[in-house]
Structure formats: structure tokens, C-alpha cells
Amino acid sequence: MNCWLRCLPLPSRCDMPLPVFSSHANVVTRLWLVALMLVLASVFPVSLFFMAGPRYSVAADGQVSGKQGDVLLVTVPVRDRPDRVEGRFLEQTLTFFPFKDHTYAGLLGLDMQDSPGRYELTIEVVYPQRTERRSLSVLVMKEKYPVQRLTLPSRMVDLDRKTLVRVETESKAVHKAFAGFVPHPLWKSRFLEPVQGEISGRFGSRRVINGQPRKPHSGEDIAAPEGTPVLAMNDGMVRLTADHFFSGKGVIVDHGLGLFSMYFHLSGVDVEHGQVVKKGQVLGKVGSTGRATGPHLHWGVRLNGARIDPYSLLDLTVDDRS
């Protein structure tokens, strides 16, 4: 599985010979290096982390990169307890949360269709008497998505007027569920896979249904036997339970800070709207309701509107949150 953040390559310490200094020159050189480090720290006060085994690595050059669909954990050092820490990336607004001592963190999602290129993440640390502004350069790299060809009954593809009205109404209900915002994390510790099975539909795959190009697949389809329990990927609150034309019986869970998870094509739903759920709690059972060719779970994630690969969350470590 790809890491959810990749640092730009740094020059090796052995790339160039080290000069030899006299003892006096050594002192001067060390003082100069200390001064240089302080300047760099002031210019690049934002850190981006990725998992490398059980430890973190840090990009210290103020430039980071990730692929379309990745999730990045951005940490911001703070001096005191700020009133708020907010960020702006493309059309997203990020709300940062206390992470550990003198550090705030925020989740940045790179949408599956963000155009490859370099963008600026701007951050404001707001104190009672002042506001500090910082920035980070984020390189969005192109992900290679497969093409998936499906054959479905024509009534599930070429919709009549009545069905189109239904689909539009259901789409508005989903957008309304995403409109709510909890300004703090509801999740705790690591995220988990809601069901285990073979991946039958990859995130980001370009779908061709009955020969017609369709929107890219915005979730992971996990094939599993009918009736297999589907678990909440983390703590949260149920924002929607429904039985829709395309997604069938489904649940949307709000995890706070603009992070939502979706569980579709269920055979049954075991939770209610507004219910608080815990990580690992059964939300429903695997099924094939809605537009589905067989029993499977469609697992999707939205982060501040960005469509991200759910599996990228499994690499995310937030155990240090205060």
C-alpha cells in the first residue's frame, strides 16, 4: 500500500566532500550552521509526516507531495494555546486540532481528480492578540487508475424520468448529510477496514457501463458473503440511513472535521440517524441492494469534500492526539 505522504528526496550527506577547518574556523562554522538552522525553522515551521514502519519521517524543506486520493497529516507547531488554527488548500478549508504538546494537526485530502501540479497550503494560527501566517508547497502527483467495464440491465443505466427525479432527490439528501460540520475530531486512534474481502472495484477506476463512460469510482468495493457484518471504521455519528436507487441501503457516518465515511449496498441497516457509534460497531450487513452485480460493500470517504481512497486512512497514525 502506498504511503500517504512522500517527502521530496534530500541530498545525501555523502554527495560532496567535507572541507577541513581549523579549530577557530570550526567554532565559527558551527555558529553559522546554528544560525542557518534557526532561519530555516522560521521559514518552514510546518511539518508533514508519513509512516515509515513504526516511526515518522519529516519533510523539513517546506515541500511535500502526495498522489491523487491520498490523505496527509499536517502538523503545525504553536507557542501558546491559539484561539484557532485554520488552513486553505484549493477549495478546502482545514480546521486543525490539538495533537500533542505545542502542536496542532489537520487532515488534508487530495481529491481523486485534483489536477497534478504544485499548490499552496496556507495556514493561519490565530492568537488573541496576533495572527501568524504560514504556507507549505504541496505537489499533487497523478495516480494511475484502472479501467473497469461493467454490463448492467438497461433499466439501471438508461433511467426514465421518474427515476431521474428520485435520483436527484436522493443526491440532495446525501449532500445535506455532508453539509454538517463538527469542529473537533470524533475519531480515536487508528482507522479500521469495515469488512475483509476481495477488492472487486478499485477506488478511482474509470468505469465504462454498457459501453458508456461514467464517473470514476469514488470508493472501494469489497466483495464479501451476503450478511457479513459491516463495521464502523472509527467513532462518529450517523448522519444518514437510506435506501437509494444507486447505492441501495446505506449509512453515512460523520467523524468530525469534515471527515465522512459511507457504507452502501447493505442488505440491512442496524443503526439510526443521529446515533453515536463506536469504532468496530456493526452498522449493517453486506448485501447487493441498489445498483449492484453481487454482494459487496461500497466503502467511500469524503474529507472536506475531497474524494479520497479509504485505504489511505489505514496508514494514518493519530495516537499522539492530546
DSSP, total strands = 24
CATH architecture of the largest domain: Distorted Sandwich
CATH hierarchy class name of the largest domain? Mainly Beta
In CATH, the topology of the largest domain is named Glucose Permease (Domain IIA)
What fraction of the residues are assigned to beta strands by DSSP? Answer: 35-45%
How many separate domains? 2
Q: Which structural class is indicated by helix and strand composition?
A: mainly beta
Instruction: Please state the average pLDDT score.
Output: 79
Helix content: 10-25%
Q: Name the CATH homologous superfamily of the largest domain.
A: Glucose Permease (Domain IIA)
Task: Annotate the secondary structure layout.
Elements: E1 6-7, H1 23-43, E2 47-52, E3 55-58, E4 63-67, E5 71-77, E6 84-89, E7 92-95, E8 97-100, E9 103-109, E10 117-126, E11 131-141, E12 147-150, H2 161-179, E13 198-201, E14 206-209, E15 212-213, E16 219-223, E17 229-231, E18 236-244, E19 248-254, E20 259-269, E21 276-277, E22 282-286, E23 296-303, E24 306-308
Question: Please, could you describe this protein's structure?
Answer:
The chain has 322 residues and is mostly beta strands. It has two domains: 136 residues, Immunoglobulins (Immunoglobulin-like, Sandwich); 169 residues, Distorted Sandwich (Glucose Permease (Domain IIA)). It contains two helices and 24 strands. Strands 13, 16, 17, 18, 19, 20, 21, 22, 23 and 24 form a ten-stranded antiparallel sheet that branches. Strands 1-4-11-10-6-7 form a six-stranded mixed sheet, with no helix packed on it. A five-stranded antiparallel sheet has the order 3-2-5-9-8, with no helix packed on it. A hairpin with a 2-residue loop joins strand 8 and strand 9. The radius of gyration is 23 Å and the shape is globular. The protein starts with 5 loop residues before the first strand and ends in a 14-residue tail after the last strand.
